[in-house]
Amino acid sequence: MRIATWNVNSLRSRIDRVEAFLERHDIDVLAVQETKAREDQLPLMGLHARGYDIAAAGYNQWNGVAIISRVGIEDVTVGFPDMPEFDGASEARAIGALCGGVRIWSLYVPNGRKIDDPHYAYKLDWLGKLRTAAAEWTDQPVALVGDWNIAPTDEDVFDMAQFATSTHVTPPERAAFQAFLDSGYAEVTRPHTPGPDVYTYWDYYRQRFERNRGLRIDFALCSPPLASRVTGAFIDTDERDPAQGTGSPSDHAPVIVDLSD
DNA sequence: ATGGTCGCTTTGCGA
C-alpha cells in the first residue's frame, strides 16, 4: 500500500494537480491538509471517477483536513479525544479513518504564529493532547501524517539564524514532537530522505523553492506495527515546482510512504 | 526590521 500526505493549500484550486499526483504515483491513500473547502464545495467528480472516496472535516478560512482513499474509508473520526479548539472556532484539524486496515490520521498542527501569540500556547496544548491520545494506539497500525508545523532539527531549516525568534523551531515545539517518538512512534520518512537541504515546504515569495531555501515540517509517524512495514519514502519536489504541472503549486510538496502487506 | 506571494468567507488576514 502506498500512502501520502500533502498540504495542498486549497483543494479546489489544486484539484487538477491532486488528481494527476494520485495517478502518477499510484497512490492508495492521500491525507490532505488546508483543503479550504466546505463539505458542499469538495471537488468530488474527478476523484470518484478515479475510484477514490473522500472524508473531510474542519473548514474555516485557513484549515480543513481530508482523507482520500481507494482502499476504503471506514470508522471516520473527526478530532481526537480532548482535542482543544482555539477561541471557540470550529477548528477540526484532525481526521482519522481506517483505510485498508491502517488507521490514517490527517493532521494539520496549529501554526503557532508568534511565540507570544495565544496560538502558540494552543499549538503546544494541541500537540500534548494528541500525544496523550496517540499513546493509546501504539499496539495498532497507525499513521500520524500531515503538516506538523515543526522543524525537529536544525538541519530541517534553511537558515536557523532567520528563525532565532520564530515558531516551528523552539525547544517546547521540538520537545512536543520528540514526545511522540518517546511514545513509540517512528518518523519513517527521514531515513529514506536524509538531509541536509531536504525540505517539504518553501515559502511562495523570494523564490525560496528555486533557491531550495525551505523547511522540513511534513512527516509520517508510524506506530511500531506499521513502522515495521515501511519499505520506502520520498518527497515529490516536482509538485512544488512552478515550472511543472498546471496552475500554481502548493507551497508544500507531498510526502509518500510505501508499506508492505 | 522589512517585504516578498499565495488563497479566499478578498480591499485584510493567515500562511
Automatic annotation (TrEMBL):
Ranges for domain Endonuclease/exonuclease/phosphatase: 4-252
Residues the record marks as site: Interaction with DNA substrate: H252
Any one biological process term the GO annotation gives: DNA repair
Cofactor: Mn(2+); Mg(2+)
Pfam family, one: Exo_endo_phos
Swiss-Prot/TrEMBL site (Important for catalytic activity) positions: D218
PROSITE patterns for this protein: AP_NUCLEASE_F1_3 (PS00728), AP_NUCLEASE_F1_4 (PS51435)
GO molecular function, one term: metal ion binding
Region (Disordered): 237-261
Keywords: Hydrolase, Magnesium, Manganese, Metal-binding
Entry EC number(s): 3.1.11.2
Residues under site feature: Transition state stabilizer: N149
NCBIfam families hit by this protein: exoDNase_III (TIGR00195), xth (TIGR00633)
Family to which the UniProt record says this protein belongs: Belongs to the DNA repair enzymes AP/ExoA family.
Protein name as catalogued: Exodeoxyribonuclease III
